[in-house]
Amino acid sequence: MQNFEKKITHPLVIGCPPVWASGWGHDEYGIWLAFTFKEIEQRLRWIPPGQFVMGSPEKEGDRYDDERQHQVTLTRGYWLFDTPVTQALWQAVMGKNPSHFKGADHPVEGVSWQDCVQFMKKLNREVSGLDLQLPSEAQWEYACRAGTTAATYAGDLENETEPAVLKEIAWYGKNSGSKTHPVAKKKANSWGLYDMLGNVHEWCADWWQTDFAAEAVIDPTGPGRGTERVIRGGSWFNDARHVRAAYRRQLRPWHALQRPWLPLCPSSGGRGRRRRRGRASRRSSSRQRCRIYRFPCYKIGRSCFVTSP
Asked: Which of 33, 61, 120, 240 has its CA 20 to 30 A from that of 95?
């Protein structure tokens, strides 16, 4: 992975933190900034500009056909929340908490893409100089990988049912106990980001596209229009094949997943038609299993602040 840190620098390089920062520093993962809202601090990590290969190689076990590999260049660095949005922060901003698995330090769940946009608009108004937005799908995967190329930022999944590498970094179907968990309790990736895989899914800014082109792209933002938004990362109920850096799926932006059957059922427009390499379709078993999970499981994607070149 090539990066352009020398060409485009973050504000702390010149000793000038942004006006919204209530704290900043440097640790083993690199630099961080924080803002504070109603006594709740949220840290952000600097994600440098650079190039990476998005998607998964054909040899990756249990990949899907919509994960075509292609080179992506991100010309601008950005600040990204180091954890999912917590229930404490959501409650402070929105005045309510839609989550089923209650806990101030748990990730918020049961929120639609549209809810997330309203959350960011309100927080941007309240914190002077803040301009949060959802990361693009490319920004999300680039940050998740943090310079790695394997199925997860801890390595490849050697055992499909219960890979050892996932135990250290993710809450998923084999270790979650069928619930979410407090953020930042698993190992971070090398850029200091926690829970990028597992715990609960994350919304991205992009409209869904069924596959990527093979050509290299610069600062991609997805299709100009669509009916569904991208979600990434996997969650507490997913098995290992859905907790990979390249795994992707879609959901309508107004869905907050309040119905018991939504989390696992394939949509008529996308997931149901996807093929998993080397395995027969399991759509019928998915329909049977989807009624087991009664609680909303999606969360706001990590908000990010994109710097100007």
From this structure: 33
User: Which tens digit of pLDDT belongs to each residue from 272-284?
Assistant: 345 444 443 333 3
Residue 17 in any domain: the answer is no
The 10s digit of each residue's pLDDT in 226-251 is 999 999 999 999 999 999 999 999 99
Question: What integer pLDDT is reported at residue 305 of this predicted model?
Answer: 61
CATH code of the domain containing 116: 3.90.1580.10
Its domain, for residue 86, covers 24-306
* Residue 298: closest CA among 109, 85, 134: 109
pTM of the predicted model, to two decimals? Answer: 0.85
In this prediction, residue 269 carries a pLDDT of: 38
Whether 258 is in a domain gets the answer yes
User: Looking at residue 10, what is its pLDDT?
Assistant: 74
**Number of compact structural domains in the chain:** 1
pLDDT given at position 159: 64
For residues 130 and 150, give the distance between their C-alpha atoms in angstroms, rounded to a whole number: 34
Neighbours of 22 (CB within 10 A): 13
Residue 8 covered by a domain? no
Which of the four pLDDT bands, split at 50, 70 and 90, describes residue 297? very low
DSSP secondary structure string, the chain? --B-TTTS--GGGGT---TT-SEEEEETTEEEEEEEETTEEEEEEEE--EEEEES--TTSTT-BTT---EEEEE-S-EEEESSPPBHHHHHHHHS----SS--TTSBP-S--HHHHHHHHHHHHHHSTT---BPPPHHHHHHHHHTT--SSBTTB--SSSSS-HHHHHH---TTTS-SS---TT-SPP-TTS---SSSSSEEEEEEEP-S---SS-EES----S--S-EEEES--TT--GGGSSTT-EEEE-TT----STTTTTSPPTTTGGG--BTTS---HHHHHHHTTS--S--EEPPPPEEEPP-
The average pLDDT across 107-126 equals 94
